[in-house]
Amino acid sequence: MIEFKYKPDGQVLKKFMKDDTFFRGIRGPVGSGKSVGCCVEIFRRALQQEPNKEGIRKSRWAIIRNTNPQLRTTTIKTWLDWFPEEDWGKFMWSVPFTHHIKKGDLDIEVIFLALDRPEDVKKLLSLELSGVWVNEAREIPKSIIDACTMRVGRFPSMREGGPTWSGVIADTNAPEEDHWWSIMSGEVPIPDHIPIDQARMLIKPDNWHFFSQPPAMVETLTDEGAVKDYSDSKKAENKSNMLKTYYTNLIRGKTKSWIDVYVMNRLGTIQEGKPVYPQFVTETHVATEEIPIAVGVPLYIGVDFGLTPAAVFGQKVRGRWLIQTEIVAIDMGIVRFSELLRQEIATRFGNLDVYIFGDPAGDFRAQTDESTPFQILRGAGLKAQPAPSNSVDLRLEAVTSQLTKMSDGKSAFLVDRRCPSLIKGFESGYAYKRIQASGERYDDKPEKNMYSHIHDALQYLLIGAGEGRSLMNNQRQAKPFQAKTGFDVFKRKPTQQRSSFWSRM
């Protein structure tokens, strides 16, 4: 007989574990018992599995985390705290990490996968599973969630009776407002600028259910509405398993944005690295109203290739860079992306001279095609050329020089709000990663993440258009266009606009 004691501390956590929905997600503060609840949920569902002809309850689960270090130090640690090797069998530390539990009539195979390991991603796409637990889902793209839904319900096989229950469970701290979780849970509407086919993927299916735990603390506000103090919340979950001073000590020295996400369970963004562009000020560099298109002024486009292609559109008017819009895509080849580019140009910028600059590495052949990305763009009728340099230092300086420049008493660099990924990258997402256990030391190059592609595109745009030329050792640059004296784009009536293509996923 298997003895196991666990009692969820909290009404939301109880409802989450009792629910049988195919996809279940639970969001809550740090320390609210989410991860432990998911560990126990795997075990509980394994116990509910109907035995096969031999009387064995067989199930197979995958547990997914964004990176291998996070998987080893956090996810696996939590699992082994509840299912230690001395009681539940040897844990296999070879890739893929596996814990095969055989106890009584129970046979559970638990496979741990990290998305930063290509072999683990390949393994996920081939597994036959009963269920999947996605740990810290805010770090996981929607495409991986969709892949998980295709791999569950396939073990045990129907010859052995099939799985009694199958599905995906997920936990997370509060994500950003434009994250797929925020949109699909109904807290944030689907942005108008997302393409129709991508928007359909963000509509919550009937067999998906999202749960949100209460905040761990309560705010005391001043008469002006500012936060004066915090106190423990009576509604907080998992309190019986935490020190009474846990949250009081936790919030010391933390910013309000950090507390909002990790303690108050609010959607938001946290700056965790060193910003690449500390010169960026939202109030200064982001337009308060839509930036109209300047008639007769050339359009410059910067493009970053790969499976997460991105493009930035901008014009230089009277010494000011006006960044008009962006395109960001996920899991899209250059052929489809070139069509998006062509449509955007034809619809919004059709009468302008267009100059496209891309990653110089795009002159190499694509992995799935004999043509290079530049050849594919040209085949779509887009005159594209490599940016004059791929030096990270030169590219960053080209942007920095514009952020610190003034023109006619105004910032020489202005971004339209139709560039949400670019703006979030400037504000917090595009950063130098802190080197672990090294104090205030950071990597010497920006971290590769969901914001790096759009910022690479901006850099190619600027150096292609001639910015940062003093650092480029006499390389030929595109001649910048100077609008007529007295011309002010913001005094013109905006032309009819079409929503840009954008995706966070």
Notes on the structure:
This protein has 505 residues and is an alpha/beta fold. It folds into 3 domains: 202 residues, P-loop containing nucleotide triphosphate hydrolases (Rossmann fold), CATH 3.40.50.300; 46 residues, no CATH class; 210 residues, Nucleotidyltransferase, domain 5, CATH 3.30.420. The protein is 28% helix and 20% strand. The chain has 16 helices and 20 strands. An 8-stranded mixed β-sheet has the order 3-4-5-2-6-7-1-8, with helices on both faces. The chain has a 6-stranded mixed β-sheet with strand order 16-15-12-13-14-19. The longest helix is centred in the first third of the chain and has 15 residues. The C terminus is likely disordered.
Question: In a nutshell, what does this entry contain?
Answer:
With 505 residues, this protein is of the alpha/beta class. It has 16 helices and 20 strands. It has 3 domains: 202 residues, P-loop containing nucleotide triphosphate hydrolases (Rossmann fold), CATH 3.40.50.300; 46 residues, no CATH class; 210 residues, 2-Layer Sandwich (Nucleotidyltransferase, domain 5), CATH 3.30.420.280.
Share of helical residues: 25-40%
Report, as a whole number of angstroms, the end-to-end distance: 45 Å
* Tally of alpha and pi helices: 16
**Biggest β-sheet: strands ordered side by side in the sheet:** 3-4-5-2-6-7-1-8
Strand content: 15-25%
CATH architecture of the largest domain: 2-Layer Sandwich
Radius of gyration: 26 Å
Q: Would you give the CATH topology of the largest domain? A: Nucleotidyltransferase, domain 5
Classification by helices and strands? alpha/beta
Identify the CATH class of the largest domain.
Alpha Beta
